[in-house]
Amino acid sequence: MMTGKIMIYTGDGEGKTTAALGHAVRFAGYGKKVAILQFMKGRKTGEYRFFDTNKMVDLHLFGPPFFLATTQATLGGWTEGKGVEFVSLEMFKGKKKTGRVVADKIASNLRKSSFETHKKKAKKGIEFVNKLLLKKEHKLIILDEILYSIKFKLVEEDELISILERRKNVNFILTGRFASERIIKMADLVTQLGDEKHYFYKEKKAFLGLDF
Description:
This protein is of the alpha/beta class.
């Protein structure tokens, strides 16, 4: 029996989730079931809408509706185990009602995206992937943003490693920034995506279809 591959898409550049979803499409095209667990994400984005009608791909969300933790304004507090309530609402004032980025839209919903809420949903995600391993129905499991979840202390690195060690012939794809040397050492493929240029830094907004 072939041991399942571990593939990692990490780095500061755009396209980590996109690359993983491409593998899901390819895998499902051969009639093989795929499970996608999106950590720290809770909105029904374009990929959710697409895969929701595909019987070969099961996509599950394990995060609040918004992904506030990725903003640089909250990074320091999250890595120290704090919530996001410390973010000043002043930074959201004066914004236009149209064309705003996700972080701007959730000024009134900080509690819904708190550290505790994220952690509870991440825990459910880990419990769920353990159940998937027992069922043995999916030969490819994608843990989207799992590396971010470890960085932000929502998931313990030992929990992920335990899952990978029990994978047998199940393939895993991990995405997110901050892949540790310990996890990289376990992987069969590691792709570092660089951040050379991005329209977001100039326009300060994300685009439907291109970004979510």
